Amino acid sequence: MDISLGLRSLLFVGGFVISSCALIDTYVDAPGVDIERIATTTGSIASASFMEDRYGFYLRGSVRPRSINKMPLSGHIDIAITGPDGASTKCMTTRHRNPPRKVRRPFFVRFEKLPEPGSVVRVWHHGGAIHNGCVT
Q: What are the angstrom distances between the C-alpha of 66 and each of 59, 90, 114?
């Protein structure tokens, strides 16, 4: 085996390992920020947490339909962020995916920055059409 071929192979594998580490999403602990998962008549939020990737922060989670026979689950996810002062600062809407043969439907929404400590992030499923603002 040629030494230069072995060195090139080692560099290729090392470069691949290092570059793949940059693609890993990282859980973000947001101390003082509460995430409230609100159950509705159409679905309940099974999980929700803040994550970070090379593009910034986002909220990732999954929604579970109230009826297991509900395939696919229609509607979307509403997110309301209430600041530490109690005033609602932002409302967002995002779609969830409907992967085949899965009970939990994943969703994610990008954030410009993490909410301030003392903020409350409320997340719920809304069975209606996409809209502006937060509708429960």
A: 22, 27, 30
* Res. 36: pLDDT tops 90: yes
pLDDT of residue 24: 73
pTM metric for this prediction: 0.74
Dist CA 74 CA 89 (whole Å): 27
Strands of the 105-111 sheet, one edge to the other: 26-27, 43-53, 56-65, 105-111
The pLDDT value recorded for residue 11 is 57
Residue pair 77/114 in contact by the 8 Å Cβ criterion = no
Distance from C-alpha of 99 to C-alpha of 34, rounded to nearest angstrom: 28
Q: How far apart are the first and last CA of the chain?
A: 67
